[in-house]
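Bench notes, bay 3.
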Amino acid sequence: MGEEAAAATVTAAAAAAASGGAPHLLLICFPGQGHVNPMLRLAKRIAAKGLVVTFSSTSAIGAKLVESSGVSVGGDGVPLGGGRIRFEFLEDGFDGSDLDELMRHLGTAGPAAFAELLARQEAAGRPVACVVGNPFIPWAVDVAAAAGILSAVLWVQSCAVFSLYYHRVHGLVEFPPEDDLDARLTLPGLPAMSVADVPSFLLPSNPYMSLTEAIQQQIRTIDKATWVFVNSFTELERDVVDALRGVATSPPPPPLIPVGPLIELEGDAAVRGDMIRAADDCVGWLDEHPPRSVVYASLGSVVVLSAGEVAEMAHGLASTGRPFLWVVRPDSRALLPEGFLDAVAGRGMVVPWSPQEQVLVHPAVACFLTHCGWNSTLETVAAGVPVVAFPQWGDQCTDAMFLVDELGMGVRLRAPLRRGAVRDAVDAAVAGPDAGAMRSSAAAWSAAARAAVAAGGSSDRHVEAFVEEVKARAAKA
């Protein structure tokens, strides 16, 4: 970041302070549920410590948040702790659903729409002191720099995955051939990994090359950001964070600042980022069941199963003989086997979306059948719930390896999906010979995660230090 940009940022922050307002941060988020959740939760933690924070994404995301979560767009926002959080979205006009089209649209229309959003803040008397972006929109830091605004990045995956991307982008590691599952690669601070454990976005067979390029571009230009936050916590990934400091590249890797797990904290759930309205009766249904009796299954907001896989999952859950709460998104509900809902009535609850963090901390939940997206991974770590790990692609592959092999919190469910394998995996996680050890490990990691985000914990201190630095820049101007 150049001196002129830094000076302009301080001037903007000073203008906000002089007008009687706190420094103003703007978080710009890639339009996906797995990005909205951690970005919004970071926004709330920063706001609670005394800043004004605007959360933004595409106009389509704004419409979904208004409909599903009731957020109010524009104005002064909502008081939160010592600050405020508000919502204002890009005027980008995209309403499609194809991923490649979305990535092309963001790359072409996004920078101009974002520059215009920043200009609107200036004109409204709330100049932006700092922009926080995330990996799938690497142009955010460039737009901020052009406007003379400091920037930060929130890496929404693990430190381990960041290290894998960083080493690959800078030519510091070669992965084994995809068909050599016995080969192992090693990186400083990480356990030995097979090619099946690395993010699939880095493999030749990856079909999502537009996402891969966006992430790699973020890695290549990440030194433009003043701060690099990561949705993790020091105690969970200390070795990889420490090892990155010793990597010899020019420029060197940025220091990663763990600020997670970015989970809902008590008192801030009134402002939520659900893009699908969560079913209202999940918790009440769980209340009717004894402790550690219910299997919770959710494959997140993006994973799509075939009709055959949905049938195998359905029959597998039913065959466990245990009550189950299963999230089947509206786009997949028609794939349920005929008569299934009637057959499991009273024992199985199928919902389009759930208040997942409330579900995971409920004492009735025995295990979590999960795709191992990083948000779900951290949520189950924080809740202390063992897992049945069923990763599909991307960083899910790495997350599953860590949950099962490193944290000792669960078992794997491998493809191809079969109903008997679902039943056996659930049985192993809930009542198998290693189930007690899994619960103990999960409980220990839950305590560590919650200590990190509690007042004075490692992640809380990192957020506090960032807020104080932003305030100090404004005060010195």
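Next record in the batch:
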Amino acid sequence: MQKIAIEQIPGRASLAPVRVGEISIDEAAIARETQYHPAESAGDARYKAARALVVRELLRQRAGQLGLAVEGESNIEVSIAALLERELEVPEPSEADCRRFHAAHAERFSEPTRLRVRHILLAAAPDDAEARDTGYRLGETLITQLSECPERFTEFAQRHSACPSKDKGGELGWLAPGQTVPELDRALQHLATGLHARPLASRYGWHLVSLDAREEGRALPYDAVAERVRHSLREQATRRALRHYLLALEDDIGIQGFRLDEQADGSLMQ
């Protein structure tokens, strides 16, 4: 069966005229909002923008019904905050709930594995095939020499690296997951200690990597992360409450040309 990209599905990429109650949301407004909703396709960005405007208009109208509206476009957020403070009921997680959640998701509240890393960046743009080929071959040569004389890493970093870390002999220090470019970050998690045997690719070029030490992550006891656990559960509860509240407003006020989805709460939670 032939697969169709999401952005080519008419219902996703091309929305019907949108109305919330008696108020229309025109194409110009959606186009202006789109810049705040990056996505993999223009259709998805437009969809997210329309959803954000629909949610905002639902809440604005409900605030008006309750006499909470404040005059002026810049004060809409004030009205919405007052509305949610009044109408949104978010249950506070109990101590037992928090302890159960921590026991079931201990990995989320652990200290991350840390890696002490040195690297030499041989710069090459992703679309420059010649530079990437040249950089890879240079990387192989340098790795061969470093295998024989590891003490030359600092010298090679200062001579060849395009990273500012070259002034420190290529030292990146202790890295936790997410602290370097994603493709290199993923590769580092699987390396053994020592000089890696081949150059590693990233969008910036080739990295010659020496993993000098590894500190494994460890689970933290509940008492050390209790507030983080409580915050996670409170955020989950807030998302659920927002979703139900918005869907109820959709039924009450009415929306034409759009249907709220499971991410209806997203623009408010950001």
